[in-house]
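for the writeup, i need someone to sanity check this before i put it in the appendix. the sequnce is what the collaborator sent (i think, or maybe the updated version? ugh). structure was predicted straight from it, no edits. if anything looks off just tell me and ill rerun, i have time this weekend
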Amino acid sequence: LDESNPYRRQLIDQTVSTALPESRNPEQVSVTVKAFMTAELPHELIELLEKIVLQSSAFSGNPNLQNLLILTAIKADQTRVMDYVNRLDSFDGPAVGEIAVNAELYEEAFVIYKKFNLNVQAIKVLLDNIESLERAHEFATKVEESGVWSELARAQLEQGLITESITSYIRAGDPENWAEVISAARGAECYEQLVKFLLMARKKIKEEKVDEELIYSYAKIGQIGAIEEFIAGSHLANINTVGDRCFFEEMYEAAKLLYTSISAWGSLASTLVKLHQFQQAVDAARKANNGKTWKEVCFACVDEGEFRLAQVCGLNIIINSDDLEQVSDYYQRKGKFEELIALLESGIGLDRAHMGIFTELGTIYAKYMPIKLMEHLKLFSSKLNIPKLIRVCEEQQHWKELAYLYVQYDEYDNALMVMINHSPEAWDHLQFKDVAVKVANMELYYKAVNFYLEEQPQLLNDMLNVLSSRIDHARVVDIVRKAGHLPLIRTYLNAVQDNNLVSVNEAINELCIEEEDFDALRESINTYDNFDQIQLALKIENHELIEFRRIASHIYKKNLRWRQSVDLSKKDKLYKDAMETVAESGESELSEELLTFFIEQDNKECFAACLFTCYDLVKPDVALELAWLNGYMEYAMPYLIQFVREYSSKVDMLVADKMDRRKEEEAESTKAKAAEIQANMHAPLLPPGLPAPNMPMEQSGQPTGFGQYTPMLPQFAHNGMMAQQDAMGGSPMY
C-alpha cells in the first residue's frame, strides 16, 4: 500500500472487490482494515467496509466495523453518514451520536439518538444544536417522556417562553427548577400558570418558598378564597413575609387576610388604613398598642378628615413625650390647628398627662389661638416647661404672656424689662409693682422711674411709694428734676421726707416756693433741717410774697444769724418777729439797737412792746436813758413798773427765805434739846462708867465703854447758850 508501489491501485481494487468480502477470517479483516487506516486511505477504507458491512457477509453485524464505517464517513465523507445511520443498527449509538455532534452533524446525531431511543440526548440536539423549539416540542409531544419535557421546558424558559415553559414543566412533572420558574414567571407576571406549576411542585417537594410563592400568586390573580383555604391547611409558608409582600405591592385585601390569620395587628392596622377601613384600623391599632401603629393610623385619619378617630389615636400617642412633637408637627403641616387643639385639650385631662402635653398646648395656643394662652398659663403654670414657652412667646411676640412666664420662672428682671419695652401689651400697674420689688438689678428701679415718667406719670407716685425702701431717693429726685417733672412726685416726696434727706428736703422746699405754699414750706423747714438753709434763705429773702421773706428771716434766726434775721424783719416791718428774734438771741446789744430803731421810726408802741419782749436783755439804765431823752417815759413806764415789781419781789423772797431758815433752825434746836433731856433722865440709875441707855457715842462726847464717865452740861447752861444764839440771829457758838 505504499505510494511508490505501481501496483497499489490494483491491489486495493482486488482486496475491496474480491479478497476481503469473501474472507471468513476475522484476523484477515482486522489486519486489512488496520493497513488501510495506517496507509490513510479513508475512501478506500469506506469502500472496503461497505463491501463487508452493507453486503451480506459474515461480518455484516459487527459493531466495531459499523462504528468504524460511520466514524470514517464522518471524517472523510459526511454525506454518507445519514445513509449509514439509517441502514446500520449495531453501532454504538451514544458514542457515535456524541462524535456526530462534535462533528456538527446535528441531524445525523438526532437520528442516531432517536434510533437508539436516547430521547433526552435527541431533544438536547434539537434544542442546543439545531435550535428548533418547534421540532423539539413536536418530538416531546411524540415521545411524552418526563426528561424530554424537562429539557424542552428549560430551553423554553431560557428563550423567555414562560407560559410554554411552565406548561412543559407541568407535563414533565419536574419541580427541580422551581426557583428559576418562579423568578421568570414573576418577571412575566404569569401568575395563573405559576399557580399550576406550584401546585404540582408542592406535591413533590416541601419548600417554604414554594408555599409562600403560591400564596403570593393567588393574591396576584385575586383568588382570596384560595388563599383562605390554603392558609387554613398545612403549609410551610411564612405568612408575615407574604403579607408584607402583598402590602408593599398594594394587594391589601390579601394582606388583610394574611395579617388577620396570624394576629399581626400592627401590620393589619396599616393594611386597613390603605383600605380606608379606619374604624377597624383603630381597633387593630388598639390591639397592637405600639406608637408606630398609632401614629400611622392617626395620620391617615387626619388625611381623610376622620378627626374623631384621629383623636382616639392621638390620645394614645401624646402620652409618650417622644412622639408628642411629631403628632403636633403633622397636624400643623396639614393646617388642622383646631383639631390639634381639641386633641391636646383632651390630652391634659388624661391620667398619664405629662408636662409635654401642657407645654405643647401652650405652644399651639401661642401660635394659633392666643386668646386662650394667658388663661392656660395661669391654670397650669406649675405643669409647664416655662423656658420653652418663653422662647415661643418671644417668637410670637406675646409680650404680656412672656412677662407672666418670666414672673413664674422667678426672672423678675426680664419680666420688668418686657413690661417696659412692650408696655402697650405687657404693662399692668399692679403686676409691675409686684415685680419691681423683686428685681435683683437695682438699675431697673430707675429705668422704671423713667418709664413711668414717659408713659404713666399719673401712677408714678404709687410706684415710687412701693419702691421707697429700696431706691436711692436722691437719685430719683435727680432723674425727675432733669426731666422737669418734679411736681409729679410731690406725694412721694412728702412720704419719704421723714428720712430727712438733703435732696428730698430741697426738692420739697423748691416745690413749696414754686407753688407759693408758704405754710408747707414753713412746716418743712421746721420739721426737717437737713438742707442748705442759708442758700434757701438767700433764695427767698427777696421773694415777692412777704410770707416767704418772713420764712427767710425765720431761717436766719434758726441758724443764729440774728442780725440778718432782725434786719429782714425790720425791712418788712415785721416788728414782732424782730422783737422775738432779739429776745431769742440773748444779745443785749441787739435789743438796744432795736430800741434805738423804734425811736428813730418814732414807733412808741413798738418801743414799749420791745421793752416788754426783750425785758431780760434790756438794761434798766439804758431803757430809762432812752425813754427820758426821747420823751418816751410814758411808754417806758410799764417796763419800769415791771422792773420795780420784780426787784421788790426778789427782796421779799429773800426775807421770806431767811425767816424760813430761822424757823427750821429753831425747830432743829428744840428737837436737840428734847433728845438731850431724855438722855439725862437715866443717868442716876446707871452704875458709874456705864453710858445712858440708847445714848449714841456722838452725843456722849466720849467713847462708850465700861468705867468711863461722860460729863454732861447742866440744863440751864444749855438753855442759856441757845438763848444767846437766838439773840444773835446766827449759828450756835461753841
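Residues 633-680 form the longest helix (48 residues). The radius of gyration is 73 Å.
thx in advance!!
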